[in-house]
Design brief:
By secondary structure, the chain is mainly beta. It is built from no helices and five strands. Strand 1 and strand 2 form a beta hairpin.
């Protein structure tokens, strides 16, 4: 596994609808995304062949990359006081 910090951003949009002078519905949507990241991964392995009984050892190496996106929707009914 790998640990990395990456920058990201988010944007929100929302509004309120008043049912009367006290009660209102509040709605919002938020979208967020991180920047892409790449992590180098490596680790040892040992494998015993089921057919020949031979033992194989070595190192696995590679990279993983990606980004994270989030979506959020909120709706609430409220009373002003």
């Amino acid at each position: 596994s790998a640990n990395n910090w990456v920058w990201g951003w988010q944007a929100s949009l929302g509004g309120s609808y008043f049912l009367d002078k006290e009660w209102f519905i509040d709605m919002s949507y938020t979208y967020g995304r991180t920047n892409s990241y790449t992590a180098a991964l490596s680790g040892p392995f040992t494998n015993v062949s089921a057919t020949s009984g031979r033992t194989y050892t070595g190192s696995l190496i590679g990279t993983a990359s990606g980004y994270l996106t989030t979506n959020s929707v909120a709706v609430s009914i409220n009373r002003a006081f």
